[in-house]
Inverse folding.
């Protein structure tokens, strides 16, 4: 079990009339927490969906590798967890029912499921809400449940599209702790955020604007590169 | 491509929970067929009874009175006597009766004389604005006349000997539905249409709903395959609509007292295949439209029109232009209607229905394959 790396090569993608991505090259090294930052409409969601295999590039390619060995996209999909930005859980199903549903979709054996589910319920503090329908969860709890569903499969590549949007600061902190708790040599994390202050929490940051990649690197490197003390200034300075 | 039964089961179980927790779906699925079949079964009654008829008896003999007695005792006509031309005209003018019957003077004398050249004459003036009722009234009146003839002959043996020739009429006997009871004809047909339409609408919503509430994106990111989703969605709705079929069947037998002469198992098999096709068609619509509103409009258009027009429910297929006769073969409603009517009202050998079974079976298979093939595994627009 080793984390997957993803390689986005010279990818262009049109969504409707807009050029959502324009010749983007990004390398997502294995085992790190990658942040895709940029204002709304920068192409973050398109990039994440491409990495999840839910969109196909007009030009260029998306490749995956485990310990340097290439993994075909179809196979990589089995090791990829993706939680979209938009609400995507079933409002009438409870937390536990969601986990059971994903258990079957991922074909997990029951003992393994029980162990992982308990672990996730404890880590998220969601245990008291097991029987609550997803539609009655607060914004933060909803995101946590979504994260639990995808983490159940122990993905080698975790893709989160704006996981902290609309979530209060305390829950945001909890979500970050959760992500870092699972990230490591066995799991690469790629998440997008339009909260610039969150860029600093990532190991590597990829700055997107209007479909183009402006820069990639560690947060401090990038701030030096752009000569700013705050990520928001990168976009404000323009 | 390996199909995971576990994933099929989990999708089916999830869908089953959605159904149980959505009172709207459940009410639509369980109550609607009952309401429709009940309503149509009671209301659409093409057997006219107690039609109001004004009578002006210009003959006033024992023969004319005897004749009117026959007419009244048939149960089809409620007679109201009118006196004089003025009152008769008024009755027709007021539009409160569909017909006026006039017995000419000399009616009794002519009947007694038994001269074929000079029969007893009755005039029936029926309101042609309701052509169905006027036609039916004419037919029924013929029947009553025949019966009255027979009565008069029995009453007078001499007369009976004379008018054998006049009595040799065509006597039709209707097989399987001797009274041509329209309820017998309509209820089995209607159950086809209602349940078929319901099946299409129910599944037309399911995939579109997942697209609309965003869950499809999450679902597609998991290893689940289109065939697993399609089968998983078909199973619970199949059980639900099959339950409907049993209810409607019981309604037809126990409430409307429609005879069921064929094989119950054969009928249930036909129902199973037919609703599978309808459910799969709903899924195809849902998969293609991805929007609930569009899906439901599509489902009604696709489900309703062929059900009435091309199935033979309203217009007999044999009377259609040749092209349309072949065209109707594309619609499973046509085949199921044939099976349904045949199995209900006759005990025909299953072999005679082979083509119909092939028709609904082929449709179901094509629709399932289409639903799986058209199922998108990405979120490309």
């Amino acid at each position: 079990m080793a984390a997957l790396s993803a390689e986005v090569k010279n990818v262009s993608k049109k969504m409707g009339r807009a050029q959502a991505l324009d010749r983007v090259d990004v390398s997502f090294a294995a085992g790190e927490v990658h942040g895709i930052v940029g204002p709304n409409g920068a192409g973050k969601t398109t990039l994440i969906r491409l990495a999840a295999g839910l969109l196909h590039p007009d030009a260029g390619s998306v490749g995956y590798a485990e310990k340097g060995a290439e993994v075909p996209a179809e196979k990589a999909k089995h090791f990829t967890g993706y939680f979209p930005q938009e609400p995507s859980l079933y409002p009438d199903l409870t937390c536990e029912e969601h986990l059971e549903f994903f258990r079957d979709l991922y074909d997990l054996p029951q003992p393994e499921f029980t162990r992982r589910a308990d672990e996730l319920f404890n880590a998220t503090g969601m245990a008291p809400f097991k029987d609550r329908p997803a539609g009655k969860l607060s914004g933060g709890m909803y995101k946590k449940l979504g994260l639990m569903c995808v983490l159940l499969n122990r993905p080698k590549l975790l893709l989160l599209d704006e996981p902290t949007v609309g979530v209060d600061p305390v829950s945001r902190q909890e979500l970050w702790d959760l992500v870092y708790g699972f990230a490591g040599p066995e799991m690469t994390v790629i998440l997008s955020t339009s909260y610039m202050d969150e860029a600093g929490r990532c190991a590597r940051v990829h700055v997107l604007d209007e479909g183009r990649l402006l820069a990639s690197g560690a947060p401090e490197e990038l701030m030096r590169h752009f000569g700013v003390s705050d990520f928001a200034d990168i976009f404000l300075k323009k | 491509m390996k199909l995971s039964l576990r994933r099929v089961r989990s999708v089916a179980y999830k869908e089953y929970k959605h159904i149980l927790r959505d009172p709207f779906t459940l009410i639509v699925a369980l109550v609607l067929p009952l309401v429709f079949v009940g309503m149509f079964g009671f209301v659409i009654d093409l057997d006219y009874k107690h039609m109001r008829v004004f009578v002006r008896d210009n003959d006033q003999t024992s023969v004319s009175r005897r004749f009117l007695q026959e007419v009244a005792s048939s149960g089809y006509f409620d007679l109201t006597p009118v006196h004089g031309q003025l009152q008769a005209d008024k009755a027709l003018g007021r539009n409160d009766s569909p017909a006026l019957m006039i017995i000419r003077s000399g009616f009794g004398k002519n009947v007694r004389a038994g001269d074929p050249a000079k029969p007893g004459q009755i005039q029936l003036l029926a309101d042609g604005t309701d052509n169905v009722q006027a036609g039916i009234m004419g037919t029924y009146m013929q029947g009553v006349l025949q019966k009255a003839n027979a009565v008069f002959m029995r009453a007078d043996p001499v007369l009976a000997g004379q008018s054998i020739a006049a009595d040799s009429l065509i006597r039709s006997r209707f097989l399987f539905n001797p009274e041509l009871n329209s309820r017998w004809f309509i209820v089995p047909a209607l159950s086809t249409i209602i349940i078929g339409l319901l099946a299409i609408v129910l599944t037309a919503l399911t995939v579109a709903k997942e697209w609309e509430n965003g869950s499809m994106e999450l679902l597609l990111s998991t290893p689940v395959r289109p065939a697993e989703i399609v089968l998983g969605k078909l199973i619970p709705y199949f059980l639900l609509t099959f339950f409907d079929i049993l209810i409607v069947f019981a309604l037809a037998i126990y409430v409307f007292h429609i005879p069921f002469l064929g094989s119950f198992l054969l009928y249930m098999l036909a129902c199973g295949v037919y609703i599978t096709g309808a459910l799969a068609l709903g899924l195809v619509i849902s998969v293609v439209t991805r929007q609930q509103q569009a899906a439901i409009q599509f489902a009604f258009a696709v489900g309703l029109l062929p059900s009435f027009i091309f199935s033979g429910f309203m217009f007999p297929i044999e009377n259609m232009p040749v092209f349309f006769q072949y065209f109707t073969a594309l619609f499973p409603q046509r085949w199921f209607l044939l099976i349904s009517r045949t199995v209900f009202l006759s005990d025909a050998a299953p072999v005679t229905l082979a083509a119909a079974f092939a028709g609904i079976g082929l449709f179901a298979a094509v629709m399932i394959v289409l639903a799986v093939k058209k199922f998108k595994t990405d979120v490309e627009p």
User: Anything to note?
Assistant: The two ends of chain B are 25 Å apart (CA to CA). Chain B has two domains: 5-43+184-373, 51-181. Residues 159-172 of chain B have pLDDT under 50 and may be disordered.
